[in-house]
């Protein structure tokens, strides 16, 4: 048994002042008791409580990650004299160069480093939208799920919870033949994709058993996905939705770029979100990533559908994608979560701040999203959506346990939490703490991160930092040594 006493704890639904947190041997919460001192409850216990002068909150879910792209952060922020344009599509060429240079070992080292950093910023779970399935020329590995294995080992080494979403990718832009740069991503048919998912599930089960993971909540989960409407034949998309190949969550890129919208209208006779809503039955388990370019009717219809959107404001800003209409979407009760996508930024607090500031700049007003929170606080609206819907983006089997508001910190639930502390925070009234964290302190206040009761981050550093950094640096040097001239 382990006991921790803190100044405060937010369960995800309410604040508990001066809580004594009791954990069992597999990292699940036994009790959270309000007490003026640790001795008030702990005096009868043989276990001495660890004392924390700050606050605990549930960890957040990063609902959209391309882990390999972490290797290129800061390496595409320039133009050359030969550039005729500089936008998402030119960035994508540089990203493809990187994707075609990575070995299984490099993917694992880069991903382990990324996941350890995500833990330091306040995420305790990540959804990996994965499309580097095969060798660089498209040939199949003898172990078809070699990269699934690499990602799972990265998650287990760092300690983060992981939902892997292998995505179906079958063509170039809307019925066009895939380019040589895309061969690594492709499946030849929906049947091959289904077989891959079966093999991936077996790989994750072996990895988890091999690491002797404790507790009833899986550390590794499997979803399924479609890269985008442009990358998959329309009939195949309808087939996969009608006969879902996996019980886990479904994720799809959609309407990220204005060009994509125009191409979709030409190829399918409708805008991307319009087409998907009209041709596929969406469920609460479906996540539409970006959905940046929406009409008023698409915004309303998507918000009132069962699905949610996954927003990645810092990546969408870095790539010049556009603005998601969060005010009108929120007014219709739309659900959303956040992700860091290309990892140009790793802070969930920054993602939420950007989302809110976009709304302020568009409306030229302060706190335009606060009206959607029960308590009238912008921080409450932002944090609760990211937290609750982030968990719902990971695994439908958790829906009964999690309920409407996510994995609240309560008895029987794994202690997946972050501990935050600074002098300003200690003097902040509890009802204003989420506002303070999102609009000022952010990741700088994260001192500790726990997954399944295990402290992975201490004093703002991951416990395996040295060994993780060594592997990461070694592979990054090798990757960019030959790659840099192609992108500069």
What do these coordinates show?
There is one protein chain. This protein is of the alpha/beta class. It has two domains: 2-58 and 409-465, Urease, subunit C, domain 1 (Roll); 60-403, Metal-dependent hydrolases (TIM Barrel). The chain has helices at residues 38-42, 88-99, 104-121, 146-158, 190-210, 234-242, 258-268, 272-279, 296-303, 313-318, 326-331, 348-363, 378-392, 399-402, 423-426, 433-441, 465-487, and strands spanning 2-10, 15-17, 19-23, 29-34, 50-58, 60-65, 123-130, 161-168, 220-222, 224-226, 250-254, 286-290, 308-311, 336-338, 417-420, 446-451, 454-458, 461-462. Strands 1, 2, 3, 4, 5, 15, 16, 17 and 18 form a nine-stranded mixed beta sheet that branches. Strands 6, 7, 8, 9, 10, 11, 12, 13 and 14 form a nine-stranded parallel beta sheet that branches. Helix 2 (88-99) crosses helix 17 (465-487). The longest helix is centred in the C-terminal third of the chain and has 23 residues, at 465-487. The radius of gyration is 22 Å and the shape is globular. The termini are far apart.
